[in-house]
Amino acid sequence: MKIRVPGSTSNLGAGFDCFGLALKFYLTVDVTVALDSSEPCCVTTTGAKENEALPRNAANLIYRAMSFAARRENVSLPSVELSVHNEIPLGSGLGSSAAAIVAGVRLCALITGHEITDQAMLNYATEFEGHPDNVSASLCGGFVINCTRKDRSVIAAKFDWPSDVRVVVVSPHSQLPTHVARAALSRTVSRSSAVHNLQRTALFTAALVQQKYDLLWEAMHDQLHQPQRESLVPGLEEALALPRMDGLLGVALSGAGPSILALATDHTDEIAAEIANCFHAYKIESTVRTLEVDNDGCRLLQ
Length: 302
Hints:
This protein is an alpha+beta fold. The chain contains 10 helices and 11 strands.
């Protein structure tokens, strides 16, 4: 069996741990039952160079997510061989771990023949990842607004993303582990900051629904996580302070970083160059991607 899972970005400025957006670059996994194997899992990996350092055995994140879902569903996994091709850079705020977790949960259902509902898959992936924004986007596709209930189950409301709004992603040649980025956040927030983000999160959704894209500039301003992470991402402060320019709708940290994204309707090359210059000022090289949004989510290919 073969599945494809999109990468993702999250937060989009003010929508901290709320907004997720699936992107058209992918983690693809072929899985084969290995009946004669004495090992539970064997992994081969291609794609980005940093994937070479990932575990090739049962410690691999995809298999650990498979095992997690199997335990929750009380089913047994056979020994498997995983052939993984990953286009998503690791530790860049682009949902690499979320895509691996979604792949694992989905493969658990496929390889065992045990039905796992979409809601259960979302809940398991969120429990394993720790937050719903990236996993919901990778599972469902499109733009997803997430809400976690008291029982820790997740509500995910999906919107198809408008085709005329593209995502420019500039990734510095460095990694920022999510747990490090989260450790930088304040344990408490002021009422004014909470209200600031609530207003802009609501405004962002209204701007998309009504296609009033000029409102996204204000809607992407955040006070809950980006200011605290500026010291971890050289160039972020300068990128967030960029002035308005033709085609640019707004700038934000992608997930926990260190990638920076811009929403744009056109002039994507010029916008990407301006953000890349913010990294270059600190002598940091970067990779630029202009991506469309994946509205399909996790898909079985064969």
